[in-house]
Amino acid sequence: MLIYFIFLFFVFNYIFITIQMLPDRVSEMAKLDICLKDLTVRLLNRDPPVQFTNGIICERKREGFRYALSRWSKFMKTAGIKVRDTVDFSFDENEQVLSVEKVVPYVTSSN
């Protein structure tokens, strides 16, 4: 008997400015269009890793809705993210967990 495990991940990164919407693919994988629910966030960039539940806000767009994490400034502070940092995320559809994999600080280029 063969048993197959399907691991569905979606990896993306952002350059942080203020509030960021979740990519449509993550919203679909989290099934936020069916049921608006809190999302588990795992901060793998912290030592030790931190996990918490964060609310979701939705906003109407031309065709459907788009979604974002609520309490954005608290999320950025907890994750150690500053404006203009680049952040690598992944979303695990099986566990329904959004993970912050890595935070690359913004470096100003001096001439």
Task: Describe this entry's structure for a reader.
The structure is a single chain. The chain is 13% helix and 38% strand. It has one domain (9-104): At1g16640 B3 domain. With 111 residues, it is mostly beta strands. The protein contains 2 helices and 7 strands; from the N terminus they run βαββββαββ. It has a 5-stranded mixed beta sheet with strand order 1-6-7-2-3. The chain has helices at residues 24-29, 72-79, and strands at 9-15, 39-43, 50-54, 56-60, 65-69, 86-92, 97-104.
Strand order of the largest sheet: 1-6-7-2-3
CATH class: Mainly Beta
Taking all Cα atoms into account, the compactness measure Rg is 15 Å
- Class computed from helices, strands and strand pairing: mainly beta
* β-strand amount: 35-45%
Helical percentage: 10-25%
Mean pLDDT across the residues is 79
**Which blocks of ≥5 consecutive residues have pLDDT under 50?**
1-7
Secondary-structure topology with pairs:
Elements: E1 9-15, H1 24-29, E2 39-43, E3 50-54, E4 56-60, E5 65-69, H2 72-79, E6 86-92, E7 97-104
Parallel strand pairs: 2-7
Antiparallel strand pairs: 1-6, 2-3, 4-5, 6-7
Structure keywords:
111 residues, mainly beta, At1g16640 B3 domain, five-stranded mixed β-sheet, two-stranded antiparallel sheet, 2 helices, 7 strands
What's a quick, concise take on this entry?
This protein has 111 residues and is mainly beta.
